[in-house]
Structure formats: C-alpha cells, structure tokens
Design goal:
The structure is a single chain. The chain is α+β, with helices and mostly antiparallel strands. It contains one helix and eight strands. The strands form two sheets. Strands 3, 4, 6, 7 and 8 form a five-stranded antiparallel sheet that branches. The longest helix is centred in the first third of the chain and has 19 residues. The two termini are 22 Å apart.
C-alpha cells in the first residue's frame, strides 16, 4: 500500500511539473556536439495484442518477434500511459531491472480494470522507442 501511495505521489508531482511548464510533454531536440555520433534508435515494437486469463487474473501481452536483421535492439521494457493517446498525458517506462528479451510479458491484473500499456525497444545507449499504446480491459 505504501508503494502505491508513493507512486501516486510521484505521478502527481510529475503532472504538476508538466502543468507548471505549460503542458510541455517533450524535451526540445538538441544538436549533438561535433565529433559525437548518436546511437541509432531501436525500431518500435509492432503487432501488440493481449490475452487475459480470468481464473488466474493474468494478462499476457505479445508483440512481433525482433527482426533478425535488427542489430540495434538490445531488449524491451514495459510501460504505461495516462490514457489511450499521448495527448491524454505522459507515458512512463520501467527504467530499472533487467530487459525483457523475448516478445511477451505477463503480469497480474484484477478483473474490471483498464490499463494503457506500451512496450519500449531499447538500444545499447539505453534510448527507448515506444510502441503504439495498447488498451487492456479485463
């Protein structure tokens, strides 16, 4: 329960900061200094779909397997959004812990809830590229 309260407080603080910044949800692009090469972006995961097992209250999200020609993606991270569109508010990515190395992710979710889920591909420089937002309703 304490973790949920802590997460809610942090989320509220981020939203307050965004409102104070005039609603800006993106960081302006900055040119790379001369002589520095930027890492290539990992391609966004595609083909997101989910299944729900009501007996175990488990959701499994699947996406298309990594293309064998993709030499940039080092793994995947799960994340969530405030709504079904980025216009509805910010999206968050789980930044700690090991990368997901397959093309599925399973977690518990009670019946009667809705979650806006996103999968992020990560490259060697830890830059992420998000998928489309998947609306999960149980």
């Amino acid at each position: 329960m304490r973790d949920r309260i802590r997460i809610a407080r942090r989320t509220a603080a981020v939203l307050v900061a965004l409102v104070a910044a005039g609603g800006a949800t993106t960081v302006p692009a900055v040119a790379a200094p001369a002589g520095i090469t930027r890492a290539a972006a990992a391609p966004a995961p595609t083909g997101l779909a989910y299944s729900y097992d009501a007996a175990t209250e488990q959701v499994t999200v699947r996406w298309d397997p990594k293309d064998p020609a993709d030499t940039v993606t080092t793994g995947y991270r799960e994340g969530g959004c405030s709504g079904p569109s980025t216009a509805d508010g910010p999206c968050f990515v789980r930044a700690s812990g090991p990368l997901l190395d397959g093309n599925s992710f399973t977690f518990r979710m009670a019946a009667g809830r809705t979650l806006y889920f996103r999968v992020y591909a990560e490259n060697a420089a830890h830059l992420t590229t998000g998928s489309v937002i998947l609306t999960i309703t149980t």
